[in-house]
Amino acid sequence: MGRDAQRMNILAGRIVSEVVKTTLGPRGMDKMLVDSLGDVVVTNDGATILKEMDIAHPAAKMIVEVAKTQDDEVGDGTTTAVVIAGELLKKAEGLLDQNIHPTVITSGYKIAAEEADKILDSIATKIDIGDEDMLTKVAHTAMTGKGAEKAKETLGTLAVRAVRQVAEKVNGGWEIDTDNIKVEKKTGGSVEDSKLIQGLVIDKERVHSGMPLKVKDAKIALLSSALEIKESSTDAEIRITDPEMLQRFIDQEEQMLRKMVEKIKSTGANVVFCQKGIDDLAQHYLAKEGILATRRVKKSDMEALAKATGARMVTKIEDLDEKDLGVAGIVEERRVAGDEMIFVEECLDPKAVCLLLRGGTEHFIDSVERALDDAIGVVASVIEDGTVVAGGGAVDMQLVKQLSEFADRQSGREQLAIKAFAEALEIIPRTLSSNAGLDPIDLLVKLRAEHEKSGKHIGIDVFAAEPVDMYKQGILEPLRIKKQAVKSASEAAIMILRIDDVIAASDLKGMGAPGGAGGMGGMPDMDM
After folding, report:
1. Domain segments of the chain as ranges
2. CB–CB of 160/169 below 8 Å?
3. CA–CA distance from 11 to each of 1, 4, 63, 492 (Å)?
4. What is the dihedral of CA 66, 67, 72, 73, to 10 degrees?
5. Could you confirm whether domain 202-348 is CATH 3.50.7.10?
6. Which residues of the chain have pLDDT under 70?
């Protein structure tokens, strides 16, 4: 209860923050996560670490929520958000020891978070979707320090091209659904062999060996129904009294299947993707007509094919028309790492694309995928918002400077909380330097002095061990990452600080039931 509950909650939040702190920056270390089955994940991606960790403490779970929100909203910056949340709690503990009430601290933190948001808007730099060089630098920054760093040149370019391809103009701005970028992983080869497919790769094979391996100038039909004779939906009994009757019945089924294939052929389609099954006899007729077909394609892949080729999904084969067909330059079955896959390439301005990732081992290719996810997320954020800020702790130092000046202009005890909020943001450059094996105190003193002298873009170059202009170095981050990190971290810290008691509840589902004062009628009697 009371102070003990607050201390325990703050401690739990800080412990989660300490776990991921060492992974921050280009010189961050990795964590090995081993689950109950013995499966291993090696990563320094904050979101992955916190998602896989087995956490029971309720306050610690709130900090994990910060990482989840950050990952969902931006796709990167999860470690930054969690580290800031932990430091805000640490600074708040110092204020609580000075007998400053939690309400005063949370009020000051709210004011500081709102001011930080305004400061970030004022120091951001505009960027355009056509500036491929700047977008690539943003992707490289997101990948630095990850397992795929040595291939960041290749992957950064692929990420930028993929995001720009699926970007759609809406109401004068850009909108990007990163789900339209499919990532297909295959072991073998090196990361440099990864490539962007202007279309899709479907992890399926042809249904019949007699079908063509490669179709040029493909006209693609997408069927969401089965190429089979439907079972009767009502209970029916067919009495067959002689062999001829049976033969006529079989012939009729054949005729129906042949008609289906003839209908597909008549529209000009030479490639068929079917979401459900294809009858053996239908496969035979399709092969005779030289049509390449594949079955049981996932719904998500069918939707992506529609966006990539311009085709429309058809439920009834009778309704299939020439205008429902999509187009692609080439549809081909190829063997990749021992598996047959269908490549749909050379689509005209596809709004769904595929990145085929290659790598030596499963673990490595998984880490490459995580790094690429971050790169895609940040590039999409930059294109949508059109703004970037300098990385390497530069923007954090600018926030520290301007928030401290803002705190000096405030009156009342909230001033102490705003000052503590500003000091907490120094944790990012401090952690970057300590993770690189440098002296954080010496480097921070140098950074403050250089920042005052040379302006807002000065951050820490952990390789040269000195303050440099991050903008000139091409170390850039989306504005959205910083805004979301500060917002999520401050909200989580405020929520934890406002808790003064932790009470064991018997059944929280009954809390919303009417009855008693303020709807608390569902609570059991408690003997204190």
Report:
1. 2-126+389-497, 128-198+350-385, 202-348
2. no
3. 15, 10, 12, 14
4. 60
5. yes
6. 1-2, 147-149, 231-236, 238, 249, 507-528
Helices (DSSP H) in 53-147: which residue ranges?
58-73, 78-97, 102-123, 132-143
Report whether CATH 3.30.70.260 matches the domain 128-198+350-385: no
Active site residues: 45, 78-79, 374
Residue 138 has phi, psi (to 5 degrees) of -65, -45
φ and ψ of 363, to 5 deg = -60, -45
pLDDT in the model for residue 472:
87
Give SS3 for 474.
coil
The number of beta carbons lying within 10 Å of the beta carbon of residue 414 is: 20
CA 94, CA 410: separation in Å to the nearest integer?
A: 20
Q: What is the pLDDT of residue 371?
A: 84
State the DSSP code for 500.
-
Domain topology for 2-126+389-497 = GROEL; domain 1 (1.10.560)
Q: What is the mean pLDDT of the chain?
A: 85
Phi-psi region of 298 (alpha: psi -120 to 50; beta: other; left: phi over 0): beta
Type of residue numbered 95? L
* Cα angle for residues 167, 185, 382 (degrees, 5° grid): 25
* pTM exceeds 0.70 for this model: yes
From CA 122, how far away is CA 403, in angstroms rounded? 13
With b for 16 or more beta-carbon neighbours within 10 A and e for fewer, the 342-352 pattern comes to: bbbbbbeebbb
Measuring CA to CA, which residue among 45, 55, 44 is closest to residue 16?
55
User: For 111-213, where are the E strands, in sequence order?
Assistant: 125-126, 168-170, 173-175, 181-187, 195-197, 200-202
- Complete edge-to-edge strand list for the sheet that includes strand 181-187: 181-187, 353-359, 195-197
Position 317, amino acid: I
pLDDT at 148: 67
- Go through 77-99 and write b for each residue having 16 or more CB atoms within 10 A of its CB, e for each that does not: bbbbbbbbbbbbbbbbbebbeee
